[in-house]
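Summary of Year 1 activities. Much of the first year was spent building the evaluation harness for sequence design. The harness presents a backbone, in tokenized form, and records the residue chosen at every position. We chose the following record to illustrate the format because it has been used consistently in internal testing since the harness was completed.
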């Protein structure tokens, strides 16, 4: 089930973000991710529209939108590969007509995931915080075709 996040979900969202970030980005120091936990809690999550994916009353993943930007989509490592990320992404696509996101160029698993969901790469740039290259990707809803 996907639902809007509440403040009581914050500890699990933060734990999900940290565990998934460490797994997906071994090319970035774990100290970097841990140093951003407070900012995630105090700055980024409060300004985002966040949704959680629950399974058996446990938060197993989340997505955060800032306007039309998919700022985060993370699933607990032990729950990855079971369709939770896909459901979260489909939910975001169902409530927006277009989405942008940034993904590290070395995160090939995420690049493949987003390409399969219809995202197209726009350009590559260097992330200010990590020095790693990241790719800006875009998705735009296809217009509905009216039968002729």
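For this record, the design step produced the sequence shown next.
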């Amino acid at each position: 089930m996907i639902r809007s996040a509440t403040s009581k979900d914050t500890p699990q969202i933060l734990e999900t973000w940290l565990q998934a970030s460490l797994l997906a980005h071994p090319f970035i120091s774990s100290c970097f991710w841990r140093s951003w936990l407070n900012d995630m809690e105090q700055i980024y999550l409060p300004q985002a529209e966040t949704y959680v994916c629950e399974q058996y009353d446990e938060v197993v993943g989340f997505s955060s939108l800032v306007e039309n930007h998919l700022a985060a989509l993370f699933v607990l490592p032990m729950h990855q590969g079971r369709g939770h990320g896909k459901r979260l992404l489909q939910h975001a696509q169902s409530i927006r007509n277009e989405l942008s996101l940034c993904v590290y160029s070395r995160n090939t698993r995420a690049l493949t995931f987003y390409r399969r969901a219809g995202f197209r790469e726009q350009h590559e740039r260097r992330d200010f915080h990590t020095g790693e290259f990241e790719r800006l990707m875009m998705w735009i809803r296809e217009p509905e075709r009216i039968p002729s």
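Helices lie at 10-24, 30-35, 37-47, 84-95, 108-116. Quantitative recovery figures across the full test set are reported in Table 2.
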